[in-house]
Write a structure and sequence with these properties.
The structure holds 3 protein chains of 3 kinds. By secondary structure, chain A is of the alpha/beta class. Chain A is 33% helix and 24% strand. In chain A, the strands form 4 sheets. A 6-stranded mixed β-sheet of chain A has the order 6-7-8-3-9-10, with helices on both faces. A 6-stranded mixed β-sheet of chain A has the order 16-17-18-13-19-20, with helices on both faces. A 4-stranded antiparallel β-sheet of chain A has the order 2-1-4-5, covered by helices on one side. Chain B is mainly α. Chain B is built from 15 helices and 2 strands. In chain B, strand 1 and strand 2 form a beta hairpin. In chain B, helix 5 runs antiparallel to helix 6, helix 5 packs antiparallel against helix 11 and helix 8 crosses helix 9. The two termini of chain B are 26 Å apart. Chain C is globular and about 80 Å long. Chain C is mainly alpha-helical. In chain C, helix 5 runs antiparallel to helix 11 and helix 12 packs across helix 13. The chains are: A alpha/beta, B mainly alpha, C mainly alpha.
Chain lengths: 508, 368, 368
């Protein structure tokens, strides 16, 4: 592999984008994106969802073609029209959710399409395997080269992707939110690998939402907003506050408007919930009017707990009680009947039905109660949908527009509307504001706060500390499937929550 | 932390065993085949040891085997070719027709013509699937009808008889090579080439990748369209070959040749361990599946079971095969996930970069 | 608990539809199939001798009745993203069971009941394997296609049960007095009402569409995915059995090979009628029109003395064309908008682009 370590000043940057634009139909995804990534450096690209980061990545990867502007790779203007071209010139992209072939071995995944061959074009399996063993030892990771990739954790799948990039001798690695689904341990391992690749002279473009990671890992940072380039600065010369201002274009302090609400009786009581390999001995209560946050790292088991409570997944032992009635496990219909609602983590897959209309989405969970003499009429559905859409101020051209045409924030409002229409007494929201724009974010926060004020018991899962600290009356911290701390509003600080999120015992 | 070689080896033994499930799958079906032959032969030695018995054992499944190999290649790419039966019929008729109308053509040319014609029909399927992005199930269901319709229209009530075809050509269907029927030799040759291609060639490996995750294959920059197209062309060509051999073996061709072969070939592939949603299995499995399927059919009467029950046995076999595959896959996933959980258990959050398994964990893994 | 008054603003109205009624009603796949049906019918009336005779309609409907029946549950199954290839075998099995029960001396109504129960059980087996064992329905029903057919053939062999009482076979072939419409259409009409209600007018039907569009999101919204699919497979088996009884009485003979291959005709009609093979999209009126379209074509061609098998080519081509045409039009549309977009951008290159939104705030007006 390369030993090029010093970056010569005269050397052209690895990647250089200037005023790149891209539209889809009438929607402009990129207005004017600029970016300059040097060899031997880790460059952060940050911005809110919808800022255009992913579009930039896809243009570099050759998945999309730009409409305008210039794109130079190692000093030369390029026009990639497919992913093979960018790959062949030395650009590797590691996506947030790696796309490996599940039935095929780790080794073949790394070399698919370019396996080393011997006579008669036969794939040289021995050599291929030896190369993989070598790559893994170079990366300092332990992974079996012969196993199929089915069942690998996301972190290990990313390692396979990185190994693939190195085997291609990629000069530029693009990591698109690689840490989103990683535990702390795995993030550390990934960063170690990234640094060693930088020290070999490779350029790394690191896309992230998390400031702590950007400051820990990167040398330079570029901020984008609404498809436009905003600023580039050296990490040493900038601060979180400054980056936030550049990203948001306004101050962030107005974002978390939790109102004081009267706390009532226990509504949701979870007792000794246990499912081996996922979560252990989980007990807590949520009272009427209260917002309880489940904090912790991604992958700590919070969504699993929520899904087990709601009944889409099962659990081995323990009990869930709503308003004094114990729930049958693994039965979401029964849970709904008793007033439980879950706004799930993965909006596009679990929350909203993209192909279905706004009206049908909103009325899906209450479709049975909308029947008259066994007949469900579009008229009735539209009336109910209209009511809930307007309460949540969903922006849509018409009720029969498919949900897929809505923005992420409005899709989330549709999911919220669907569940509020069921008149729940407990609302579980899993990452309620992930991937939605700032304006809608604060609308969602205001809505949750009002709901709690009206006596709803809210259980909120969030990976965003400010959201947790701003919204929650109580914070439960989950680490490796166990609740490691219960903090009330006064006790909960960034430090106490993070400590509990990364340690097995809560004793600080 | 460097990976210690012993660890990789230790783990790889576990996985080698898990990975060998795939091969065990083909071994299992082969064993079932041998068992059927053995049991039937004990009941009636003529089943295997008479000249006719031996010959039938080898020659009857050969045509299905050729078609099933093509079908397996298509299924591995997460597609399906329901038109194979119609392609067999149409190619068989074309072969006979050419013999009748162009008597001056040497028979090997006609032979080749039949195969190329099948490939062309496969190309139609492939082009529609690869470029119109419509599921192959629908496309090939459509061409199943269309090709059969053309066949029926073309044939009408006519039919081609042995007297219409040259003797050299018909000899293909009856002659043997060291007691092994030539048709079987051809089928085994086809299998060997297909097996060699799918196991050792990049293009063959890419078929598996495409079937395992078509979206990922696009991201990888694999030539998905071209591969899927060629899979259909191969399937068509092999169906064409089966059609030509049908004409040679049976000597008469009417408009009903190859009827129902689509389900038999899919059944053979599924019994042989080719996953219906692509990505795994092998042409060898499909070939043995074809042998098992048709041998059971012939064995039932010998075993005293009314041969009207053949299809029921075949159905039970297909369902048994996929149920067993599902159970095995569930076990494998559970094991892989369990291994991952063990693997990810950090000794302590502070020294978490140490990803080495304690030795007792490794043992536990081996004992799972 | 919460009345969830989230906004202080006065509730605003939403347009219920983004397009006016005439466009929603006219520009649909279903209407296109209807138009084709009417066109074929009119052309046939004027160009095919005897086509206009009432008896033609009677026979047309008698011929397609079995397909019409089975297409109803098949539509729902395909909308959930599954498929049932075993329906024709269930027709055969129920025909045989009905025949043997009658032969054994059971009164006809009881024999019918037994046959229908057998069909329901067959559907339950499919549903169980798909929902509880979580096997792909394509593979499962290929297996049960062979299994159920095998049981049917095994039970009766090559014999047939005939000699059903005339009152009953007349019932299957008689017409509604004063019309050319067969009486069996009354049963079909009743079933259609039930299925239209089930799919388009009940909360169960909303769940069916939701499952086909995103089974995971459906599960997270309290749709019992597994139970819904199980019910549909049982319905499919039941209706297929009913069709089997009809088939037996119509042709006066209970045979194991009754209705062989019918499944492909049913599926072709369902897909032609605008149901997406990927699930989530489709409507029953389109499917019924498609069945009638195929039936009308077949009947017209038969009367015109064209080989009846030409219908195969037409069915196949229609099927392929109907699934390829949307991709083709999408492709044309995409190229058109792309070139238009390029021109527009070139024109507005110097002006500031504003991020476009797809959201439009619409003033209060309910558009009923």
């Amino acid at each position: 592999m390369s030993t090029n370590s010093a970056v010569k000043a005269a050397q052209p940057p690895a990647l250089e984008l200037e005023g790149v634009s891209k539209s889809f139909g009438s929607v402009a995804a990129l207005v004017s994106a600029s970016l300059r990534v040097e060899h031997g450096s880790i460059h952060a690209l940050i911005g809110e969802n919808g800022a255009g980061k992913s579009t930039v990545v896809k243009i570099i990867a050759g998945l999309y073609q730009r409409d305008g502007g210039t794109f130079r790779y190692r000093g030369e203007e390029v026009n990639f029209t497919n992913t093979a071209q960018s790959k062949d010139s030395g650009i590797a992209v590691i996506y947030q959710e790696p796309t490996l072939f599940p039935d095929i071995s780790v080794t073949e995944n790394i070399f698919m399409g370019r396996q080393p061959t011997k006579s008669l074009g036969r794939v040289n399996r021995t050599l291929m395997r030896a190369m993989v063993v070598d790559l893994f030892s170079q990366l300092g990771v332990k992974l079996d080269p012969d196993r199929p990739t089915r069942g690998l954790s996301i972190a290990d799948q990313q390692i396979v992707e990185i190994a693939k990039a190195i085997s291609l001798d990629a000069r530029v690695l693009i990591m698109d939110e690689p840490t989103a689904a990683l535990s702390g341990v795995e993030v550390d391992r990934l960063f170690k690998v990234a640094r060693s690749l930088r020290d070999e002279g490779r350029a790394i473009l690191f896309i992230s939402h998390r400031f702590d990671e950007v400051f820990e890992l990167c040398d330079t940072v570029t901020v984008m907003r609404d498809g436009e380039y905003i600023a580039t600065s050296a990490i040493a010369d900038t601060t979180v506050a400054q980056l936030v201002r550049q990203m948001v274009g306004r101050d962030i302090s107005t974002l978390y408007p939790k109102e004081v609400a009267e706390i009532g009786d226990d509504v949701l009581v979870v007792s000794k919930l246990n499912e081996p390999g996922r979560f252990h001995d989980v007990s807590f209560t949520v009272r009427a009017g209260e917002i309880v946050a489940l904090a912790g790292l991604v992958g700590a088991g919070r969504s699993e707990i929520a899904q087990a409570i709601f009944g889409v997944d099962s659990y081995e032992s323990g009990s869930v009680t709503v308003n004094g009635t114990q729930l049958r496990k693994h039965d979401p219909v029964a849970a709904m009947r008793l007033g439980l609602a879950l706004v799930p983590e993965d909006r596009r897959k679990q929350g909203v039905i993209l192909e279905s209309s706004v009206a049908r989405n909103i009325t899906l969970a209450i479709r049975q109660s909308l029947r008259k003499y066994g007949l469900l009429r579009a008229q009735t559905e539209n009336a109910a949908a209209s009511e809930w859409a307007s309460r949540l101020e969903v922006k849509t051209s018409a009720l029969d527009a498919t949900a897929g045409t809505l923005s992420g924030g409005n899709q989330q409002k549709v999911v919220l509307a669907k569940w509020l229409a069921t008149n729940p007494s407990v609302l579980i929201v899993d990452e309620p504001t992930r991937g939605i724009d700032v304006g809608t974010k604060s609308e969602v926060h205001r809505a949750l706060s009002r709901l709690a004020g009206n006596g709803l018991a809210v259980l909120m899962i969030s990976s965003e500390l400010p959201e947790v600290l701003g919204m929650a009356d109580r914070v439960l911290v989950v680490h490796e499937g166990r609740i490691t701390a219960e903090l009330d509003r006064a006790e909960a600080t960034a430090e106490t929550v993070m400590y509990a999120a990364t340690h097995r015992s809560a004793v600080a | 932390m460097m990976a210690s070689p012993t660890n990789i080896l230790g783990q790889s033994n576990v996985f080698a065993r898990l990975g060998s499930i795939g091969k065990a799958r083909e071994a299992g079906i082969l064993l079932a085949f041998i068992l059927v032959v053995a049991v039937t032969t004990t009941k009636n030695p003529n089943f295997l040891f008479s000249t006719d018995g031996f010959r039938d054992l080898l020659v009857t499944p050969a045509l299905l085997m050729i078609v099933a190999v093509g079908q397996a290649i298509v299924i591995i790419t997460r597609n399906v070719d329901l038109s194979v039966g119609s392609v067999v019929g149409l190619s068989a008729y074309l072969t006979g027709r050419v013999f009748m109308d162009m008597t001056w053509l040497p028979w090997p040319t006609v032979f080749l013509l039949g195969v190329v014609f099948g490939a062309l029909l496969g190309l139609i399927n492939g082009a529609l699937v690869a470029f119109a992005k419509v599921p192959s199930l629908v496309i090939t269901l459509g061409t199943l009808y269309a090709f059969r319709g053309i066949n029926v229209m073309w044939t009408g009530s006519k039919r081609i008889n042995a007297s219409d075809m040259p003797a050299d050509f018909l000899a293909l269907g009856t002659s043997a090579w060291y007691r092994i029927p030539v048709i079987t030799v051809i089928a085994v040759l086809v299998l060997a080439i297909a097996g060699w291609y799918t196991y050792t060639q990049r293009g063959g490996r890419e078929l598996y990748a495409i079937g395992s995750d078509p979206d990922a294959a696009n991201l990888y920059g694999l030539k998905v369209r071209r591969r899927v197209l060629s899979a259909f062309v191969i399937s068509g060509a092999l169906a064409g070959l089966a059609g030509v051999l049908y004409a040679a073996r049976y000597g008469t061709v009417n408009s009903q040749v190859g009827l129902g072969l689509e389900l038999q070939s899919v059944g053979a592939a599924v019994i042989g361990g080719v996953a219906i949603f692509g990505g795994s299995g092998s042409v060898f499995g499909a070939a043995i599946g074809a042998f098992l399927l048709l041998t059971i059919n012939r064995a039932l009467p010998v075993l005293g079971v009314d041969d009207f029950w053949q299809r029921a046995v075949v159905g039970a076999l297909i369902i048994g095969a996929i149920v067993l595959d599902r159970l095995a896959a569930n076990r494998q996933i559970r094991r892989l996930v369990a291994l991952r959980d063990l693997d990810q258990q950090p000794g302590d959050s502070d020294s978490d970069r140490d990803r080495e398994l304690p030795s007792d964990n490794t043992k536990a893994v081996n004992n799972v | 608990m919460s009345d969830a008054a989230l906004t202080s603003a006065a509730p605003r109205g939403y347009r219920h539809h983004s397009k006016p009624l005439w466009r929603r009603a006219l520009f649909t796949r279903e209407i296109a199939v209807f138009a084709a049906l009417v066109a074929v019918y009119v052309v046939a009336v004027f160009s095919v001798p005897n086509f206009a005779a009432p008896i033609t309609i009677t026979y047309l409907l008698l011929d397609v009745a079995a397909i019409l029946f089975i297409a109803l549950p098949m539509t729902m199954i395909i909308i959930t993203g599954e498929i049932d290839l075993s329906v024709a075998s269930v027709v055969g099995l129920s025909s045989v069971v009905f025949g043997t029960m009658y032969q054994a001396g059971l009164p006809i109504p009881l024999a019918i009941a037994v046959a229908i129960v057998v069909g329901a059980v067959a559907g339950f087996i499919n549903g169980f394997l798909v929902t509880v064992m979580r096997l792909p329905s394509l593979a499962v029903t290929i297996g049960t296609l062979a299994l159920f057919r095998g049981l049917a053939v095994g039970l009766l062999g090559t014999t047939a049960v005939t000699g059903f009482p005339a009152t009953w076979s007349d019932l299957a072939t008689s017409t509604i007095p004063g019309t050319p419409i067969p009486s069996v259409m009354i049963l079909f009409g009743a079933l259609t009402i039930v299925f239209v209600w089930l799919l388009h007018g009940s909360s169960f039907g909303r769940g069916v569409f939701a499952i086909g569009q995103s089974s995971e999101a459906a599960r997270f919204s309290g749709v019992s995915v597994e139970r819904t699919k199980l019910i549909l497979f049982v319905l499919s088996g039941t209706v297929a059995a009913l069709a089997g009884v009809y088939y037996t009485l119509r042709y006066g003979s209970a045979r194991g090979d009754n209705a062989t291959g019918l499944e492909l005709g049913v599926i072709a009609a369902v897909l032609l009628g605008g149901v997406s093979i990927f699930g989530g999209r489709g409507a029953l009126h389109g499917v019924i029109a498609a069945v009638l379209l195929i039936g009308t074509l077949a009947s017209a061609l038969r009367l015109a003395n064209v080989t009846s098998d030409v219908i195969n080519i037409i069915t196949g081509t229609l099927l392929v064309a109907s699934v390829v045409s949307p991709s083709f039009f999408a492709w044309v549309h995409e190229h058109w908008t792309r070139s238009r977009g390029r021109r527009a951008r070139a024109a507005a290159a110097h002006t500031d682009a504003t991020p476009a939104t797809t959201q439009v705030d619409v003033p209060t007006s309910h558009n009923h």
